[in-house]
Design a protein that fits this description.
The chain is mainly alpha-helical. 78% of the residues lie in helices and 0% in strands. Helix 8 runs antiparallel to helix 11. The radius of gyration is 20 Å and the shape is globular. The two termini are 24 Å apart.
């Protein structure tokens, strides 16, 4: 008689998969390179040209946003990580083996999500705090700096990691629906990059109403120390983005349970 699998054993199994797959290691490396590398590049350029920057721009300068600029590009890397965590098993055909070992699909979907979310939260927070601290160190002595002792600053840095985590979970949930790596990544990139360009052709009033609901715009609201114009506050933005993930995950899990491998 086969021993019944528990959720904890499924999580342990999926954790082994997550940390040993080459695409995960590459994706995590790219996430750090983009978050820290671009943050260092932008903050270094700001420091080099600070004395020639006009007074109006100096007074409105956001040292937190400049340090975290790499998150804008790292969001694509975490999307790839999240999508490949499920779609790669369909591509390789190993999903049949996985479902043979773990026939309870609901627990399997949750187990994968737990591993992905916990891992990406740790990775995202380390990358965000490292980028922030590095940026402030580069600014020191020349450009005004920000401190984690300030509540809005600490919140912005923490939510940068949360934003990356939610995007990875969103991409994973899309993968449950689409099952193909290329299709999942294409849809994910389109939502972040192409859809905002399409909105440009709409009337300005429609743009303002629609743009604030876009994932990238919600991330901007979450990681800003002040509420950007025409955007939600950070609490509303966090709730809406989390709701997107929950809805897509529920739909994806429902399809995952009903369809063949």
């Amino acid at each position: 008689m086969r021993r019944e699998l528990s959720l904890s054993s499924i999580v342990r199994s999926e954790w082994i998969k997550f940390r040993t797959v080459r695409s995960t290691l590459v994706g995590v490396s790219i996430t750090f390179v983009l978050t820290l590398g671009l943050g260092a590049l932008v903050t270094s350029l700001v420091r080099a040209h600070w004395n020639s920057t006009n007074l109006a721009n100096q007074l409105t300068f956001d040292p937190v946003g400049a340090s975290l600029v790499g998150v804008i590009f790292a969001q694509f890397a975490v999307g790839v990580i999240g999508s490949l965590f499920i779609t790669s098993e369909y591509t390789s055909g190993s999903m049949r083996t996985t479902l043979t070992s773990v026939p309870r699909r609901l627990e399997l979907a949750f187990g994968k999500l737990i591993v992905l979310a916990a891992s990406m939260f740790a990775i995202g927070e380390v990358a965000a705090f490292a980028a922030f601290l590095m940026g402030q160190a580069i600014f020191s002595g020349v450009v005004p700096t920000a401190s984690l002792a300030t509540g809005s600053v600490l919140r912005s840095v923490v939510l940068a990691g949360v934003y990356l985590t939610l995007l990875a979970a969103f991409a994973y949930s899309l993968g449950l629906i689409l099952r193909q790596s290329a299709a999942c990544i294409s849809v994910f990139v389109s939502l972040l990059l192409v859809l905002p360009l399409i909105l440009v052709f709409l009337p300005q009033s429609w743009q303002n109403d629609a743009r604030r609901y876009l994932p990238a715009e919600l991330g901007r609201a979450m990681t800003s120390t002040t509420t950007p114009p025409n955007d939600f506050g950070w609490v509303s933005a966090l709730i809406i983005l989390a709701a997107y993930v929950v809805v897509i995950f529920v739909v994806g899990t429902s399809m995952f349970i009903r369809r063949d491998a």
